[in-house]
Amino acid sequence: MQRQRQRSSSSWERSLRFLVSLSHSGWVRLVAKVTTALLVALTIVIITFLVSVRHIGLQVREGHLYLGAFEIGQFTAASEVQSTDSNQDSTGLNRQAFGAQVTVESTAGFQNSGIYLRRGDRVTLKPSGRINLALRQVYAFTGLVKPLIADRLPAGSEFNERYKTRNQLQDPETGEVLQNLTEIEVLQRLTSVGNFGQRETFHRDWIGPDGEEVSSEDLDPCLLFRGNSGVTPKWGMLLAQVLEDPGAATADPFQILSRNGLTSSDLIPVSNLENSTLEAERDGWLMFIINEAVLSGAMEGSQPVQPQSCKDYHDILVDVANTFKAEDYRNRYRIIERSIPLVWFSDNIGAFQVIVRYADESS
Fold first, then answer.
1. CA distance 42 to 39
2. Residues 185 and 213 in one domain
3. Terminus-to-terminus CA distance in the chain, angstroms?
4. pLDDT tens across 197-253, in order?
5. DSSP one-letter code for 242
6. Based on CB atoms within 10 Å of each CB, which residue in 77, 108, 162, 231 is the most buried?
């Protein structure tokens, strides 16, 4: 310790002797170097600030620095906020600067926006983006585009001959390239599935936040949101609600709603055809989810929260999961029981984005 102090003292003494020994011209050169370094640093700061303002929304308002819509600084936990400012919300965000963008994945259950609202708060929701509820159908269709085109091209065209020969669209006896096949014949020859129409379908479209009215046969009764007050339920439509207990994105949505004293009919559709306004009926987190089939094991008293058929589907998968465990198939086959309610979410693709603003804020 004493040696370190001696070295530090000697270092300061050397620096002081150096400054004292400088000539007039030496002082001029030193000041010039320091000034140049400061100017370079200031120039870099100014350029960085201008680029930030132009490209990432950096703002200065009333002495406060904002990045996009959020104030840069320490946010206060919702349970600790005791603000008297009417323009301050429960997470410490300034309402006048509030404009969050939230991503809602199509593969997850209830998703927390991270925005905590007080009862009576009103926010506008502007969604965008697209999703598809059947990834397998996307692959099925895109994999068959070329053969369908090839079959409709004139015989002898390069595309037609090359693709049909490569994919064995030939007479098995003569080897002659087949022409004028029906669409179903093309599909059956290019797949190993005997009855193509039952397995390799592709009727699902890419959809926006308003969803689509395409029936899914046996799964229609299992839709999370089945309508309310004249609202027609649609597959894939974006839904929102304020929940005090948000739960996890992997949890059964019906169980989360039940813990919050709500049912699926309390969910609020979020439309991109017009600005949707949501008024918080309770203190809680702003949550989002898409309307998809859920296989819930939740019960309300002695009755399942969903139609019995959906509960049966859930129970069958639980039985299969237990069978796999008993047969020790875990190295190759495993069904995670907590994932069963959201099993139909797993083959979705895409996401929605939602811009959330306070309702009294100008758009």
1. 5
2. no
3. 64
4. 445 677 788 999 999 998 887 899 999 999 887 788 999 999 999 999 999 999 999
5. E
6. 108
